[in-house]
Every structure is written in C-alpha cells, then in structure tokens.
Amino acid sequence: MDFKPALVNDKGMEVHAIEGFANGSFALKTVANGRTFIKLFDAQGKEVCADITAIIARNRYVEFCRGAVLGERTCLFLQKGDADDYYAAWVEHDKWYESGVNDVYIFANDWFETSAYGIKILHSADGTEMAHDFKQAKVFNLGYALCMTDADVAGNKWELFTLSGKRIRKVSRVAGFVGDGNMLVYGKASNILSLRDFAGKELPTKPIACFENFANGCFVLTFTDGLSRMYLPNGKPLSVEVKDATLLPDGCFVQYEGTLITGVYGPNGILDRRTIYSFEKVSHYYLFSGEFYNGHLFDSAGQKIGEDYVLLKSADNFALFGHNGELQLFNQYGCVFTAKETLK
Prior knowledge:
Elements: E1 2-8, E2 14-20, E3 26-32, E4 35-41, E5 47-48, E6 54-57, E7 60-63, E8 66-70, E9 74-80, E10 86-92, E11 95-99, E12 101-106, E13 112-116, E14 119-123, E15 129-132, E16 136-139, E17 144-147, E18 156-161, E19 167-178, E20 182-186, E21 193-196, E22 208-213, E23 219-223, E24 228-231, E25 245-247, E26 253-257, E27 260-265, E28 278-282, E29 285-289, E30 296-299, E31 304-306, E32 310-315, E33 318-323, E34 326-331, E35 334-340
Antiparallel strand pairs: 1-2, 2-3, 3-4, 4-5, 6-7, 8-9, 9-10, 10-11, 12-13, 13-14, 14-15, 16-17, 17-18, 18-19, 19-20, 20-21, 22-23, 23-24, 25-26, 26-27, 28-29, 29-30, 30-31, 32-33, 33-34, 34-35
C-alpha cells in the first residue's frame, strides 16, 4: 500500500508505504530528514531491527527500499540497483552480511521463499533450505507443493511433500489450491472441477465451476448449478448452499433480491437479527452499515470489533481503516499499527 501524501504517526514519523506479508509481519517505508528508513514489525506489531536503516557495503552507502522479518532474529533488507537488480543484506543476531537475494515472499506459517540470480529457494521457518530451483511453491500446514515447470494447457503439474521434505506424489491438471492443501483438479476430458485433499482423496461436492479463496483460509466453491458454499480450510462445509448471495469471512451471507439486500443469514441459513443497508468485505473482516448505524466492524469469527470504521485501503491479509481520528492497520491478528488521520 502506497501513500501520497504520507501517513504520520503519533511520533511524527512519515509513512510512505506499507508492505505486508501472509504471516502478518510487515515493513514500513518511512522518510525522515530526506532519508529513507525501512522499519520492520512482527505479526503482533512489535518493531524488529529497530533503528537499522543503512550500512556501508561494497565501499558505498546503501539505503534500503524493502525489508522483511524472517524468524525471531533475522531480517532481510533489499536495495534496488541498476537494471532492476537488488542488493540484499541480512542481519542475524545483530551481525550483517551481504547476499545476492533480489526478492522475498513469506508464507502464512512463517516459511519463506527467496530468489537469487533467477533461482528460487524455499526455506522453513528456521531458515533451513527445503527446495531449490522451482517455478512456484505453495506451503500449507500439512506440507508443501512445488511446480517445477511452466503451466501447460491442462493446468500446472505439482509435486507434493511433507513438511519434513519427504516426497509424497505428483499431481496434474491442478486448477488451484484452496484451504489447507486441498486441490481443485480438472476432469480428464472437461473443464469441470473436483475437490481433492492433500492426500489425494476426492471430497464429496457437486461438480465445481469456479472458486474463491479467503484470507483466513476458508474458501467458496460455486457449482455448475449456480449455487455456492463456503468451506473450512480442512475442506469441511461451513455454510449452507446459497444463491444470489455474498458470503462473508465467518460464513454468514448477505442475500439479495435483484440488487436489493433482503437480509443477513448465519452460516446455517437462519435469519440474522442484523438489518443492513450496505456492507464491505475485506481480508479477515467485514463492515455493516444500517439506517441508524455506520461502519460496524466484524472479524472472521463473527466478533464485533467496534463501530464507525471506514475502509480506506486493503492488500491481501491487511486492511487500513479510519476510526475516531486515527488510521488503523489490521492484519489477521487485529490492529497492529496506528497513525494520525490527518495526512501530511
């Protein structure tokens, strides 16, 4: 999320950009006295590698533009150079060393992927290298999947592994992954999808036309008959089947008649007492507004967080809200950063 003009927190720090990661950690790109500073935070909003802004390396002064927290005491800083290359530096136990890494991606379970000289490397949460030189990686609580070649006409071909690195099997015709390692697989002679778990067992559903992933790991399947249903990350149904409705992160759904909202229902299909005129869903959260109230914020467990929230920006599992004169950044664990509502 980029900000023009910048956000300003209660200490007068200007924030020009926020980069969030799937595990809830995030980096702030800040400016002070004309210099760029990268400040790193863990998933609970605690600052990590505080006051580390630049180093002398290769006989030149380095100012970083990106950063990430990897594990408890390891941070990675990236500085863009010529021809879109990145110079990287690691700080581990307060010691610096250089690297050829030019990109980083962090998974929800703290595993991470780095790229160096065009080669991708998958690491477990403690930094152990688990895979080398692949096209794509997906990491789940049950294991991980690697795509070794470019996608073909019938869908990507993947190899599945346990978290310890033991190879399980190969799968093909994969349209996508949903929840905790579940796969949507094309039929051999059709574009109709079926749902299989990480072990390869087909899960009972009607023929599937398309799907939607939610940031909390739940997912929605839309069937060829036009009905939709939300599922938990383990592939078990969370909601009843719905039509002409929008499913929310907790499995509740908003029902329509044409373009008019007719009601809110629980995951079991029972009418909810909340009466709404409008709503927004984002990341792990959703907002309801009605005739006499505005911006009631709920999380993915259906718990009410507060009132008078306004959604300003969102990216993946992060959402920025305005609330009572503050800007509040939320990840999947709640509010992790605040700034003044007045932009500089």
